[in-house]
Fold each of these.
Amino acid sequence: MIGNNASQEWTTGLCSALLLWLVAVGNASQVKGQARVVVNNDAWVRIDNGAWVVVENPLPVGIQTLGTGGNIRSEGEFNRVRWQIRNTLGTYVVPFTTAAGTKMPLSYTPLVAGSAEVTASVCFSTFNHASQGIPLANAWNNDLYRPSDVTHMNSYNAPSVPNSQNAVDRFWIIDPGVAGYAYGTLPSIALGFTYDPGVVVGEVTAGNAIGPLDPVGAQRFNNAAGIWGDYLPSGTWAGGLPSSVVTATASSADFFRSWTLANFLEPLPVRLVHFASTCEAHGVQLSWTTASESNSAYFDVERSADGIEFRTVGRVAAAGNSQHVQQYSYFDAPVRGLVYHRLLQVDSDGASEYGPLVSANCGSGAALELVNAWDDGSALQVVISSPIEEAATLSVLDASGKLVRAEALQLHAGNNAIALGRMGLASGVYLLRLTTRTEQHARRLQVME
């Protein structure tokens, strides 16, 4: 059983009446790894002072709850569960509970396995305003207690304006890159979040612009580019006590550590809302989208063989000033093997900023991918890359997660260009979901007026 010494051995079969406390008093890395953690009949595991619970079982049964359930309290960025998942597939559930006693399980499902390093782990934690001693009157202001890698909580529609009031008052850390336990190749994932929409002890407090019944989606912070909005809010929201966001998907390129839940209609900031690469004959097709631009001059396209050393391979003129969605593309050839690309956006005054990194592995096998999607004014244009011929379903969901329409497809090997009519779709943000017998992929789509 867990005692006051963080380095002490502890049993994993927990009796129903036992209240457990894990307190780090020395080196938190000394916590011994466990093959299985079982928490039953509402027992508690409390992690404090930067301690770790280490689960060395890569299977989803590594953490289980029995009887009336169990509770793991984190309430701190570095009060972590380190689960040595490696390249195993399945749905992993961390039975987090708030300090006030609301159960908020977090689910993690690798859709495409990451690499198989012996120590490859995902580290989980969560916290809200109370963990930092923030008064309830200021709980809406996530800037006061944001994770260590998050530099701002600014607006999507006005990138210099703080937008905390449109995010719930809680962060989740889902970290595949902790030193010593990091993945060499990240998995693609689906996440499920639970939160308390209560005003007093929950995560939608009185200062927020959103209310308990407003739909939200999962959004992560790109700490490499310093932006939120290159990944728009994802997942299907369900209200209640507690509320949840499920099936929030992210490719390996969008798997960063810090997550929150933001208003579908007022997401956290963006300049570049989409950047993707896909293999074509002898080269890589790059496509990107901006939601708004101010005094933009051009984009430099940079390529790298190792993701470290880059060189400029092309330049694309920018729109200058725009409050509308702009689509861009560039074909880089010849290219074979694994290649990385990034964009350098340069303004008319000479200021510049790097966008996110994307990769493509050309000539070494393909994968199913929702390559691109946009509204051309008369139809929704969707590009799907498939390695094989197979049946699929393309679904359109509105911002609340309601299914608007679904189309049965027969994909052929290679790129598939699909045009969907806009009939019945109001302007706004929608989710496209591509489902086959074995995979599911999703991406955001802005339907214009």
Amino acid sequence: MKITVVGTGYVGLVSGACFAEVGIQVVCVDVNEAKIEGLRNGILPIYEPGLEEIVKRNYGSGRLSFSTNLNESIQGAEVVFIAVGTPPGEDGSADLKYVLGVAKEIGENMSDYLVVVTKSTVPVTTAEKVHATIQSALKTRGAAITFSVASNPEFLKEGAAVEDFLKPDRIVIGVEDERAESIMRRLYKPFQLNGDRMIFMDIPSAEMTKYAANAMLATKISFMNDIANLCERVGANASMVRKGIGSDPRIGSKFIYPGVGYGGSCFPKDVKAIINTGKQFGYELKVLQAVEEVNENQKQVIVQKVISQFGKDLKGLTFAIWGLSFKPNTDDLREAPALVIIEQLLKLGAKVRGYDPVAMKEAEHLYLGNSITYATDAYDACVDADALLLITEWSEFRVPSWEALSKLMKQKVVFDGRNLYDRKYLEELGFVYHGIGV
């Protein structure tokens, strides 16, 4: 079986490599020649645990190939996945120009039946637009070629995407006909050996499922952060509250950790997009509007704690930042809370020394430039620092040597943005401790 994946970003590359891993012939297509050339040489555009090994292994075996030529790549394929970007517009809506551009090119070049699958996160009615775009291109050619459109949203967690794809908890597929369903069942059969996890539905429901899932998870995060902020004011401990409510199976323990807010390529964009979809159909999603507002405010909470400790004039003070990416095990800085926090500290006159295990190159090249100092390791970041801010909970930050840090730092102040550390223990060592909701 041969398939084509258009787009070699996070979703496209992981999907293509994992399909190749189970023996499917995969061509990954991208218009970026430098990116394709890099992939052919084993240079990946993203960091994701386990992905590099799978890409290199399957490229070496010939099951996975990379191309800039969509016309050649779709010949002989049964399925084409559209996995290009859908960046948010000014109003929060998903920009579909890349998705529909690919659809048009497919219609201009296809020579036999295809299942065209939207893998990108797209709003409801996108499949209709894709279908109309392909049909229009075929009509212009005077070609009477049948095709199907399907929706197959991804549910990959950055930092665990390879595992999620190879061992999915569910595979949601929206189809419009039995032929497309049969082909998609055959495509995903290798991932179903331990039980059928495929959920077939109509296409609009599949498109909505992706947004609803991310919106629900974002809601849990903002809810817990709201509760954490109240806990501080009434003298409660948000970490204890989390354990108390998380033991209820109706609530669950995931995504209810207080912190500095969510970021990344999915939650912020998808919450905005579904709010915009509601407006387009005359419905106001008030809960999700509040989710977004709480999250934006939460990114400022740790800065307010810094101001409470040091005042609004931070000139002459140096702050160590542990963690730049929006979550561990990724170099993704899109909507990362660390960027907002660093920007505010710099505006207040502070100097910043940052360290992240994998995201510093991305930070320097695309986001922060030379506005901060990039440390060689976690301890180097703390040399002569007036305070340490933990922003991203990378594993190597969990059990630092506080004795070493107390000797390196100018002032022993810790702002724990993920509630990783034991307040009592740090205070016994002479540190001033600030957590979230405690």
